[in-house]
Write a structure and sequence with these properties.
With 211 residues, this protein is α/β, with parallel strands linked by helices. Helices cover 44% and strands 15% of the residues. It has a single domain (7-197), classed as Alpha-Beta Complex (Protein-Tyrosine Phosphatase, Chain A), CATH 3.90.190.
């Protein structure tokens, strides 16, 4: 499908009230939210639990869809981790992820979609470092709604990323794309979800400690 002129937004619910999130969405003209949290629940902010949020958004005329299985940042499977953290580049190649992107692109032909996760800063979140990057790589315009209501283009965030990861200087041996890829990897190593030991490993360790 063509993605010419396609736009997708992102937003983090952070510690906002529901009313503040609604204000941010409305200020950007958002008509649909794609929840990309792997676990769509919040212990401290229950108004962002999946069913509650879906109901509130529906009341306010905003469509809700859960895409945490396809586009979440906490993958299942050792193959999606590298050096103890989620490997966004490997995740971006998985069939589930590709299907999730296609769903977003299809929906974006009808709605103004915001990908929603929990982190306030998009550069600390997979919605930018994984999903936003993949969409931008397909020629989609990606805009990030910040906590103060400002909207930042994904390309401007990439410039910030290069600077924050000390990759903005011209390198004789690396192209801009290569430096940007390095910056993405460095940032992901800092903020991506850490791999959790499976239950069998935990049980084995417990049994060993009993001996």
């Amino acid at each position: 499908m063509s993605v010419t002129e396609t736009l997708v937004w992102t937003v983090g619910h952070s510690t906002h009230s529901y009313e503040r999130l609604r204000e941010l969405l409305r200020s950007a003209g958002i008509t649909a939210v794609a929840d990309v949290r792997t676990s769509p629940f919040s212990r401290h902010f229950p108004h962002f639990n999946r069913d509650v949020l879906k109901s509130e958004l529906r009341t306010d005329g905003i469509v809700y869809s859960f895409l945490g299985k396809e586009l979440g940042g906490r993958p299942r499977g050792h193959q999606f981790y590298c050096n103890g953290v989620a490997d966004y580049e490997r995740m971006a190649l998985s069939p589930d992820f590709v299907r999730g992107l296609e769903r977003v692109l299809e929906g974006a032909q009808k709605y103004r979609i915001a990908l929603m996760c929990s982190e306030q800063n998009p550069l600390d979140c997979h919605r930018c470092l994984l999903v936003g990057r993949a969409l931008a790589g397909r020629g989609v315009g990606v805009k990030h709604i910040l906590a103060n209501g400002a909207i930042v283009d994904h390309r401007d965030l990439e410039a910030r990323l290069l600077k924050s990861e000390d990759r903005e200087s011209i390198d004789l041996f690396l192209s801009l794309d290569e430096r940007l890829a390095e910056a993405y990897r460095k940032r992901a190593c800092k903020v991506a979800y850490p791999e959790q030991p499976d239950s069998s490993e935990i049980n084995a360790t417990t049994e060993q400690n009993k001996i």
